[in-house]
From TrEMBL:
Domain (Mur ligase C-terminal) ranges: 286-409
EC number(s) given by UniProt: 6.3.2.12, 6.3.2.17
Protein name as catalogued: Dihydrofolate synthase/folylpolyglutamate synthase
InterPro entries assigned: Folylpolyglutamate_synth, Folylpolyglutamate_synth_CS, Mur-like_cat_sf, Mur_ligase_C, Mur_ligase_C_dom_sf, Mur_ligase_cen
Recorded catalytic activity of this chain's protein: (6S)-5,6,7,8-tetrahydrofolyl-(gamma-L-Glu)(n) + L-glutamate + ATP = (6S)-5,6,7,8-tetrahydrofolyl-(gamma-L-Glu)(n+1) + ADP + phosphate + H(+); (6R)-5,10-methylenetetrahydrofolyl-(gamma-L-Glu)(n) + L-glutamate + ATP = (6R)-5,10-methylenetetrahydrofolyl-(gamma-L-Glu)(n+1) + ADP + phosphate + H(+); 7,8-dihydropteroate + L-glutamate + ATP = 7,8-dihydrofolate + ADP + phosphate + H(+); 10-formyltetrahydrofolyl-(gamma-L-Glu)(n) + L-glutamate + ATP = 10-formyltetrahydrofolyl-(gamma-L-Glu)(n+1) + ADP + phosphate + H(+)
Stated family: Belongs to the folylpolyglutamate synthase family.
Role played: Functions in two distinct reactions of the de novo folate biosynthetic pathway. Catalyzes the addition of a glutamate residue to dihydropteroate (7,8-dihydropteroate or H2Pte) to form dihydrofolate (7,8-dihydrofolate monoglutamate or H2Pte-Glu). Also catalyzes successive additions of L-glutamate to tetrahydrofolate or 10-formyltetrahydrofolate or 5,10-methylenetetrahydrofolate, leading to folylpolyglutamate derivatives.
The keyword Metal-binding is assigned to this record: yes
Pathway: Cofactor biosynthesis; tetrahydrofolate biosynthesis; 7,8-dihydrofolate from 2-amino-4-hydroxy-6-hydroxymethyl-7,8-dihydropteridine diphosphate and 4-aminobenzoate: step 2/2; Cofactor biosynthesis; tetrahydrofolylpolyglutamate biosynthesis
Tree of life domain: Bacteria
Biological source species: Pseudoalteromonas lipolytica
Any Pfam family: Mur_ligase_M
Annotated NCBIfam families: folC, PRK10846.1
Lineage, uppermost ranks: Bacteria, Pseudomonadati, Pseudomonadota, Gammaproteobacteria, Alteromonadales
A GO MF term: dihydrofolate synthase activity
Length: 421
């Protein structure tokens, strides 16, 4: 444990180092501890309307879409997301902007003084810190991304104005279970009685609707209550008399449709022109983000089967244009590497595998074993780090090759930092 307790005059880095040391577990499921501290410091008594956003993938892009559409109507918005790519400050936004370090330091100092002898994990400190910042700014709406699952996630201590489940797939199986039904039941734990609950998944497990019906949540379901269809040019969205044809945004159309449905349900839907303008300008760092035009380099945080399937669809567009696809992959040890790489294997012509030298980071040897279990016959090269791989690859990439760097948030951060330098 860090011996020196940070203070209100300490740096944010000092506080983050301290928060990483004060709880023996990275993840501890359950709400009792975090709810106790939240009540002790008065965080649950807020005038802000909170929207809880859960899902295996798509939470960040859905939140970014909602943020943009609410800001366009003049509302003040606080957004909490995790993990961050480069800076901790990315996790909390007020009206789309990151905050100075001191706001986070003030929040952590308040929590440390108010928590008593209750231990908190790093994520729980971050969640409560974000709630403290949002209360301090008295924002109209809070967009709160659920960290893991839903039912026992620290974010689930709040009384939400509405709830969203974006997608449901297998990830964090050691905590959530190894079937979509188990995962769906856990995520449905954010639902509340007589509270709007929007579900954007395209094949909703019965456990989600069973629980929603049991507690009488106001469920609005994809495929039943709102319709979303997509083609190469854009997507169609239908709900409550709205029948809109919209251009394809930089985020998954499914998540945009889910966001629009939530706002319509809450009677907060902007005009069609405002929606078009917001979608046209949406960008989310790390989601099929272009890092270089020549050579053509993209990066993506895809790290589980569902997100990898979406990435494969994005890459297939370039494949159909005649590009060869070179995948540089580095992943965490607890991810389903075989399933993730299998999802993109049919579009990949060359693999580069790299180790991640970080907590939970996996070694390149394990990635190679996982790749051998896929159907891919494309050749592979192995590297000790993402940076080393890029040093070697970039001078040899021709104009007909697209390089995609993916596998985790840490992988994407390494690629972004490489190009910034």
């Amino acid at each position: 444990m860090t011996e020196i307790l940070p203070s209100q005059s300490s740096s944010l880095d000092d506080w983050l180092c301290y928060l990483e040391s004060v709880h023996p577990a990275n993840i501890e499921m359950g709400l009792e501890r975090v709810e106790r501290v939240a009540n002790q410091v008065g965080l649950l008594d807020t005038s802000s309307k909170i929207i809880l956003i859960a899902g295996t993938n798509g939470k960040g892009t859905t939140a970014r879409c909602l943020e943009s559409l609410l800001l366009a109507q003049g509302y003040s918005v606080g957004t909490y997301a995790s993990p961050h790519l480069i800076r901790y400050n990315e996790r909390v936004r007020i009206n789309g902007q990151e905050l100075d370090d001191q706001f986070h330091v003030d929040a952590f100092d308040m929590l440390e003084k108010g928590r008593g002898d209750t231990q908190l994990t790093y994520f729980e400190y971050g969640t409560l810190g974000a709630l403290a910042i949002f209360k301090r700014h008295a924002v109209d709406y809070v967009l709160l991304e659920v960290g893991l699952g839903g039912r026992f996630d620290a974010t689930n201590i709040v009384n939400p104005h509405a709830c969203v489940i974006t997608t449901i797939d297998l990830d964090h199986k050691e905590y959530l279970g190894d079937t979509r039904e188990l995962v769906g039941y856990d995520k449905a734990g954010i639902f509340r009685t007589n509270t709007p609950a929007i579900v954007g998944d395209l094949a909703i497990p019965h456990t989600v609707t069973d629980y929603g019906n049991e507690i009488n949540a106001e469920m609005v379901l994809s495929g039943r209550d709102f319709i979303f269809t997509e083609d190469s040019e854009g997507f169609n969205w239908q709900y409550q008399g709205n029948d809109w044809r919209l251009a394809k945004p930089a985020i998954p159309c499914q998540n945009a449709a889910t966001a629009l449905t939530l706002l319509a349900k809450l009677e907060l839907l902007p005009s069609e022109q405002q929606v078009r303008d917001c979608l046209a300008n949406l960008t989310v760092e790390g989601r099929f983000q272009q890092l270089s035009e020549q050579p053509l380099i993209f990066t993506d945080v895809a790290h589980n089967p569902e997100s990898a399937r979406y990435l494969a669809r994005k890459l297939s567009v370039y494949k159909d244009q005649g590009f060869k696809i070179h995948a540089l992959v580095a992943m965490l040890a607890d991810k389903d590497k075989v399933a993730a790489m299998s999802a993109v294997a049919n579009v990949v012509d060359q693999w580069s595998l790299a180790s991640l030298d970080c907590f939970r980071g996996d070694k390149v040897e394990n990635l190679a074993k996982a790749l051998a279990e896929t159907t891919s016959t494309a050749p592979s090269t192995h590297y000790e780090s993402v940076e080393t791989a890029l040093d070697t690859l970039l001078p040899n990439v021709d104009e007909n090759t697209l390089v995609i760097v993916f596998g985790s948030f840490i992988t994407v951060a390494a690629a972004i930092n490489y190009f910034k330098k």
